[in-house]
Amino acid sequence: MRRKLWALILIMVVIVSVAAFLSFYPVEPVPGTEGLNVPVGTFLYLWYGNATAGVGGLGSPGWNSSTYPGGGAVVDTPAIGYYVSDSNATFQWQVKEMQSAGIGFAVISWWGPSRTGEAGAIDKATLDFFRFLKGTNSTFKAAVMVDTFDGGNNLNESTLSSVYNYVYSQFASTYSDWYFSWEGHPLLLFFNPIYPQTNDTRFTVRTIGNRPNPVDWLFWSAPGGFFQSQLQPGVDAANDIGNPLISSDGEVTIVPRIDSYYNNRSGNQEGYLRFDPALQLGLYQAEWSFVISHRSQVKLVLIYSWNEYHERSAIEPHYDGTSAEGYSYLLNVTAAYVFNGTYTRAAP
Fold first, then answer.
1. What is the pLDDT of residues 277-308, one digit of tens each?
2. Domain 30-339 has what CATH class?
3. Rounded to two decimals, what is the model's pTM?
């Protein structure tokens, strides 16, 4: 009888210990069979605030400033305020929020191996993001998208070679456990109009962009019923109207909203596009429903974007300038589709 009592006490101690362990080290949510069992990533922009001085807020780079590349009007407010991108506190919050919705990796918009200016700040922030993932032993991963830091010109062979070598040595090799791989190699994207003429077998290389550019992966598209208005020059909604496009290798990019109206009004760009600007038409739900209904063809999902506030495509928790939805609305929609394959609005 005494042995049974001690055995029961031992079992209870083990149960309590396991429960305490799990509460201290929370288990990451895993997408369910009703949702998606493929990698889900999102585009992350690290151009906010001043990486050197640690200054954020309105008027700093990216937040209603005129600096390039992150300048322009911002009318939505991140839930944690106008942050500095290059900050472990910001990284921690962003990664936690992304993982809570089943997003397993970020594609970082990278503006070349510069050491000066905003492009240099983005390069430093990218390195610091990988350092953060390693330092916290995170299961989250990141990949790099080479953005158009060379303007409208394609990269020449010398510059392209230096980009390949830099990305491999600084990111993909040094942080191999935290660099996202696709089809057996580190994923490296090039945003149009960059079309690398030479491949590098160390990477899985894909071009990504909008129609009519000849790219491997389409950046985003939206059905015509969600189009509201446009202002030319520089844009043509006809190129962007349509269902999400699933590439030949199973990648698809979706978008919650496109609204560059305020960026145009600030004088930062010539024209603008508006697709579901007030989040009233349900574009994001329609895009996700398309993905779920074609899940047998989908192998990789990218979301544009986590925090591109100038085109207002951010799903990062934020207080919306034109919608009455709660600050986690788009993140909640994301989680619902990733984990459950559907979204049902909560009762008021």
1. 999 999 999 999 999 999 999 999 999 999 99
2. alpha beta
3. 0.89
